[in-house]
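Continuing the batch. This is chain 6 of the set; chains 1 through 5 are on the previous pages. Same settings as before, nothing changed between runs. Recording input and output for traceability.
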Amino acid sequence: MKLNMYSDSGHAWLKVSKKMLIELGIANKISSYSYQRGSYAYLEEDCDFPLFAKAYKAINKTLEVIEHHTDRQSKIRNYDSYFFSDFLTNHFSPFYNFSIITNDSKDVKS
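Output for chain 6:
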């Protein structure tokens, strides 16, 4: 599979579908140092990308990374930080009829 890696002078992120993170069983392990926009997560290069690569390799798949670099600040830095509870609330709870409980509030979405 070919995936895109975007970088600026300070960091890099791998663009991966959120669905793939669920399928690999790692969606809840991605840190808030990664970003999200729409149905994609942009995995931070130091922790989250290696986690993804290890999970992907474990299912005997080959990963090809296509690199894109900008000398400017990447627009990815302006995307929302990745939070698994946000992902569930926005993408799955309407379909599966479950509630998400957080420490700072009771029922978030059902």
